[in-house]
Amino acid sequence: TFPFRRFQIQPVWRADRPQKGRYREFYQCDADIIGSDSLLNEVDLIKIIDDVFTELFQGKLKYTISINNRKILQGIVESVGETDKFEQIVVAIDKFDKISYEGVSNELINCDIPKLSVEQILDVVFSVDWRREISKEIKEADAHGCLQQLANLPESIGNTINGRTGIEELEFVFEKLKELGIKTANIKFDATLARGLGYYTGTIIEVKVDNFPSICGGGRYDDLTGKFGLKDVSGVGISFGADRIYDVLLDNKLYPEFKGDSTQVLFTNQSAADEEKFLPMLFELRDKGINAELYTEQAKWQKQLIFAEKKRIKFIVSTNENGDLFVKEMDGTEKKPFSSIDELITIIRK
Amino acid sequence: TFPFRRFQIQPVWRADRPQKGRYREFYQCDADIIGSDSLLNEVDLIKIIDDVFTELFQGKLKYTISINNRKILQGIVESVGETDKFEQIVVAIDKFDKISYEGVSNELINCDIPKLSVEQILDVVFSVDWRREISKEIKEADAHGCLQQLANLPESIGNTINGRTGIEELEFVFEKLKELGIKTANIKFDATLARGLGYYTGTIIEVKVDNFPSICGGGRYDDLTGKFGLKDVSGVGISFGADRIYDVLLDNKLYPEFKGDSTQVLFTNQSAADEEKFLPMLFELRDKGINAELYTEQAKWQKQLIFAEKKRIKFIVSTNENGDLFVKEMDGTEKKPFSSIDELITIIRK
Asked: What pLDDT does B226 receive?
């Protein structure tokens, strides 16, 4: 049934050389929509990214969704008449973050691109560069600001067919995002974003927090399925890098404290009689969906209490000197007697 | 906090040559208890196996939990005075399933074990062989029957220290299982079960269904952690082979029919006005935990209906000629008007 929406978490492998934050095997959470050209899918995916990180980061960590369109990159290259050097130019622009204006400029000149064209290219890249503004006023990094930046792109780009289409596509996306609103993400139009020279053909997306490699990325890929025999089917998708997100959460202390809800009830064990009595109850509780365990050694009461405390178990079930059953909340002092498993469950669930 | 109970699902790698059902990379679901010598853990794990397969197989597939104790194997070997050939003997016995009496006998004779000893060994193995009885009366394959088989083991084994300990340990386990009851598993004492010559030291467990390699296995391993610097800590654990269980379920048609509960609500799309109206509602519904999607192309009504039907979406939301909103259950005919998102949610959740 097309369009086909796919959500999947699985391990994937990287062929590149592994480095810090670039693991050989890692987990990816993918969301893809196959068989639809509609730009509403881009809007959908960006909203999903915003939802996911709003929840994961709890509003405590700044992050930016950078958005570009490969057709705008094509427009830039076409506008200076260097179409045959598209790949080299994009590779250079993509390094803007690392080697800045000077570095990109040198790299382009080394590609035998005339100095004038290099300046034109860098003018465009600079004209939409958000870095300075963002540091001044983070609020600007929203869909509204992106629309302004798009409108300010040099006419030369809009005059190419690819450039014009790329601008119109992004305008649609930013317009919708402006109307719908974004929860916590900074939305940024980044004309230097290239996402490698892969299979992307339209919108490209990348999510970053400071000091980490990108934690989510994706874009539109026309006819990628053509490689596998299914022609003329467009797709758009994003991938969350689960391991990196894990690293970011750990690094920023965003994991909630361990709640210790693994075991709810501990049956204590002070004699063979206790084992005899508690073993069937243990499995009955589990059958009712209550996580329980029996202390496996016949041990001193105090040792078992410490164990329950360390594991933050909420209830302990024991027998008193007369062999009567009782349950005690670890936080409280009251020992509630009970005589049937149903009574015990009622007390626990209350 | 010891004893430490560990439950984990993860991909693992096999160093052996891959074969049918023996994948290079596969998923394992582990349950281990570290730091407790109590045989109650064995009981616990066997009950967990019974719970898991009772649920997965829905009572529609026979399966057997075979149980042995490595100390009984030691006892068998000691009782014929061939302790130094323990590993070879166990390897041969382990092949009983594949090469039967004749094959094991030949293999043992080739190991330079006297013919009399070979016969003694095979007598023991045969004396507790369940294969014939099981085919006659499956009901016998329970903890009660296992206890009888244990009692009938030749005295010579019980007279060795290892043999005696192994028998007593299994008696405890089978006694408890008899008292607690088993839901759907056949429980079988299998003196030929060796589980390779790995790190197991006590109870060993293996789960099989017909025509498949084992789908779960495990046992007790004393001091395995010693290899990694933590001395004198006992452990016991089981591993479910997720991929094989998947194969078994598929092969036996035990997967439930697709319920199509991925998308609950489809917003139809017949005009830009629809997109404008439905896009914010789409994200509001999702924020309330209701899975929804918007048909991304402005398409004919009939095409969208077919899409909703194929995806088994329960509700469609549309506008009529006057632009009024309504929701329709795909199963029914009634078009219910609504004017706010809260009204829509009330209708859907009813």
From this structure: 77
